Amino acid sequence: MSKKSIAKNYIYNMVYQVLILILPFVTTPYLSRVLGAEGIGIYSYTYAIVTYFILFGSLGVALYGQREIAYAQDNKNERKKIFIEIVIFRFITIAIAVLFYYFLFMRGVQYKIYYQILLIELIAAAFDISWFFQGMEEFKRTVVRNVLVRLCSVSLVFILVKTKEDLAKFTLIYSLADLIGNLSLWLYLPRYMKGIKIEHIDLKKHIPHIILLFIPQIANQIYKILDTTMIGKLVQNKAETGYYEQGHKVIRLLLTIVNSLGVVMIPRMANAFANNDKKQIDDYMKMSFNFTFFLSFPIMFGIVSISKAFVPVFFGDGYDKVNLIIYLLCPMVLLMGMANVTGTQFLLPTKRQKEYTNSIVIGVIVNFILNYILITFYESIGAAIATVLSQLVVDIIQLMYIKENINFKELLRSTYKYLISSLVMFIICFGIKVVLSFNIVANLLNNLEIEISKEYLLNVISIALQIGFGAITYIIMLIILKDEYVFTFLKRIKNKILSFKKTA
Hints:
Blueprint: H1 3-34, H2 36-58, H3 61-71, H4 76-105, H5 112-126, H6 130-135, H7 139-160, H8 167-184, H9 190-193, H10 207-234, H11 239-274, H12 278-315, H13 320-329, H14 331-347, H15 353-401, H16 408-413, H17 416-436, H18 439-446, H19 454-480, H20 484-503
């Protein structure tokens, strides 16, 4: 496939990944007010628990399946055989996870009703075959599936969830959305499987490879949800879990934009590795790092700039602590963006699972120790600090592992344009906040006969102006600094305009 195909798949996958977060994120201002911090905290905690069972039930099937399907893209018989074997294997492991979950969390425990509803999430995981379409580089199909199902779920949330007592309804809506969404992908399968007969099914051959990939997968997933779980266990006030979850949700959404290239690049990097094409691997690495820096720096500085106005607008009253959590977590956009390149896009596709596993396991250990110490004293704030420090450790270890595969001087040189442009953008945004703080602006709003809070409206205006002028400033600075990404983008627009004029 061409580079244009990579760009298209990135866009499709970014939409796919963002959609998983964005539609629940759209409901956040409403749910924060209706369910409250405690309700959000209960959901976050119980969902984190079921995530562990999904993780153990799924093993490393998603990543392994995507990679194996990518290897067998052009072999229809082998492709179908791999798909059937992996699906059967996953059904068995999820069934085992369901049994353990039933006996441990569905009988006589606190929050029993929520655990019972979340059983649907476990069942939904058994039918998740998005890995097949990712391996086939058919990202468009998963996007269409998510758009329809998630829009329906969001509509139901606004219709049915009205009070704090509706937390169970909210949990049920989102769980059913995942199940229906996963089942809907099966409708696309016949075109890939039609007319192919499979005579011999061998599950055993996959087990060693799945287990090998499961270790880094489980370490990585535990690493992602350890903070929420430990806050829930160590802190009596469940609102602290809610504060952390809301702040972390903002960062996860921003990370999705940065990291969506990773899923697209896994099959590409694996194919280049299989063909021993070192030059192609180097080119992919350079492209991924530059793309990560191109997005990470402005996003990181931008969220710091707008956070103070964003939190009260988006989450409502009583979430002031989320603002500080966002400040502390914002370096994760850059740190996890880099780790996505070094780990997900390079170490795993090139079968260096051991190095990847080592880095993540050390990260989990550091995170656990720091969480235990810092959460005890600083609650959700401590968890945010522990998260950033442990991720920094992971990044350093992975960079040391691939030091022979990248040019650090070239890597640092590629950051200065984005860093300088982002700093100038931040200064402009700060200037906008200073101007809006003048009484003249508040007086103008006071003269308007509107029912909306003047403070709320001022915050909305501040966010809109900072995002608009910030984005324009960033692009202008990159044009001045002659960044290749911006010039390539402008060249494509110019070519499309010229092409349109010729056909008109």
